[in-house]
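Weekly modeling sync, notes
Attendees: S.R. (lead), two postdocs, one rotation student

Agenda item 3: backlog of single-chain predictions. S.R. asked that every request posted to the team notebook include the full sequence so nobody has to chase files. The rotation student volunteered to paste the first one in as an example of the format we agreed on. Action items at the bottom.

Example entry:
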Amino acid sequence: MANISLKRKQLITSALSKHLSLDSGTACGISGEDDIKSLYTNVLKTSGNWSHEKENDEVFKWIGFAESFPVDAQACSIALNKLNEELSQKSVLTGNGMKPSETDAIVFSAVYPSVTGLSNPEREQLTHVMRWMDYIQHKEEFGDLFEKIPFEKPAFEPVGARSTGEVETDSNLKKTVQSTKSSEKTEVEQSTKKSTKNSEKFEEEQSTKKSSKSTEKSEVKNKDAGKKVAEKKDPVAKETSEKDKELSVSLLNLQVGLIRKAWKHPSADSLLVEEIDVGEAKVRQVVSGLAKFCTPDELTNRLVVLITNVKPGKLRDVMSEGLVLCASSKDHSVVEPLLPPEGAKIGERVSFAGIDGKPEDVLNPKKKQLEKITPNLFTDEKGVATFKGIPFMTSAGPITSSIPKAGIK
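Predicted structure, as returned to the notebook:
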């Protein structure tokens, strides 16, 4: 086991104190003989947050990970890959839902120096570690203990990149047509040469064929003309275009909102009520099924993505005027609101490259428009929220989640 330095212990203690909102003096007077487990218990007791529930095998597993985190480059790489694998199905290490725990603060402090020394290609191999560290450094108020690690947002190709392929297809089609015409011309010439001995018979046959072909072409043109007229009158094509429109995310009025206040629903344990500012004259009241996954304090002053054109209605006698979009793991054990980037403007509309259209004034529940769109909403392997793979974008960058490959609704 690695012998962790006193300096690293003091850093971990300071991070724990910041996490628990303790006075910075708590970090002073740490003995070099104390292990991280003792530091953890002492800081929690000082803060008044210690209980036997805080001591369990999972917590001690990560404390041991931090205590023995190596300095050697090769061993460090193995440890970080192990952490990356563990985080592939988690938003945080031992927190409740999306709330970081003391364990997250400890492990973050332990691995931070090593992660900052990695090259960009090395960081790209640690997708889940980098996603987790970016979440922790924005969620926790560590003050000046750590400089924020720059996190490169995923790039994406705008819709319409197929134009080059379509040009190539058109070019190949022209070549095929030219080749076919050349082949037909060669066959006629060969046939003409072979029939020189009986030219009169040949001319009669050719004349008959031309007449037949002309008649066939005329019939085909008439059929095509009739088909086009039928298509213009046929309402099926119109229905198809309307169905495509119903599936477009442009029907949703997605806006960046700020939760000003949140509290428990008075008559439903699974529901929370939030007052959300979307830049209107007054805040909107929204009811969300988030009580099992986060507390009112965690939601207060948090940016979210709100569908503002759902039909208002009461949920257990409390009026709701919107829908907070959340990412959910496959087993629904972890659910969290989507996170607009720092710097996104309150009230701005979320956009999608290559998709234009005016949102409905109010979604029609009878048409089940929302139910048809949400199956196409998900986070990618880097946690970026997308519609059919096209990122949710704001003026400050893409909207994300700490849960990769998650459904959104």
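Discussion: group reviewed the output briefly. Residues 199-233 form the longest helix (35 residues).
Action items: rotation student to repeat for the remaining queue; S.R. to check formatting next week.
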